[in-house]
Write a structure and sequence with these properties.
Layout lengths: L4 E7 L7 H8 L8 E5 L8 H9 L5 E4 L2 H4 L3 H15 L2 E4 L13 H38 L15 H9 L5 H8 L3 H9 L1
Parallel strand pairs: 1-2, 1-3, 3-4
Helix pairs in contact: 4-5, 6-7
Length: 196
């Protein structure tokens, strides 16, 4: 069976752009149907398209990724996944942004040692970056709160005629929809104000 080339791309959220990774895959002439993309965090490998990719990956296939942090951001998990792909499945991996991480080259002991060392350093950096992102997020939220910035939806104020309209609604003089229209409220807002 002929070996295949697969691409794996990942962005952390749906609004991030995957184009840079897709352009890099074009240089490897990867068929579009052999490119797997996930739009979710790299904290673990519980990703639907990544798992599909791992199921189709076979011995002597090639997996191409743009950078190690696109594979993941958890040091131990990256190392385990790398071993699983290269040792158990016996497929090769190329990390475009780091030519030393190309398992097709230097399969001797020294080459393997250098690849493993670079992989460990880059995996560590990827996880550290994830920690820094979380820390910066936390600091940003704290800073904003200290400045009086509120998070979440703004609290809806009770319209001046709310009590009168609700009494009519409770006495079945008005239907829910009519009460909401008079008050200019959407259903969620209406019922949240009732609870309050």
């Amino acid at each position: 069976m002929k070996s295949k080339v697969f691409g794996y791309g990942r962005v952390s959220s749906k609004d991030q752009n995957i184009e840079r990774q897709l352009l890099a895959f074009k240089e490897y002439k990867i068929d579009e149907r052999d490119i797997y993309i996930d739009k979710q965090s790299g904290k673990d490998f519980d990703r639907s398209n990544y798992n599909v990719l791992k199921n189709v990956l076979r011995e002597n296939d090639l997996l191409v990724i743009k950078s190690i942090d696109r594979l993941g951001r958890n040091y131990n998990m990256i190392i385990e996944e790398w071993k699983d792909i290269t040792k158990n499945i016996k497929a090769d991996i190329v990390v475009i942004d780091m030519p030393l991480l190309d398992t097709r080259n230097n399969k001797d002991l020294l080459g393997t040692f250098i690849s493993d060392l670079v992989l460990q350093i880059l995996s560590y950096v990827a996880e550290q970056e994830r920690s820094f992102i979380k820390q910066r997020q936390k600091e940003g939220i704290e800073n904003a709160k200290n400045k009086g910035i509120k998070f979440g939806r703004p609290r809806i104020e009770k319209p001046s005629n709310f009590d009168m309209v609700v009494n009519k609604w409770k006495n079945k003089e008005l239907k829910s929809k009519e009460a909401m229209e008079i008050l200019g409220l959407k259903p969620n807002s209406f019922y949240n104000l009732l609870k309050r």
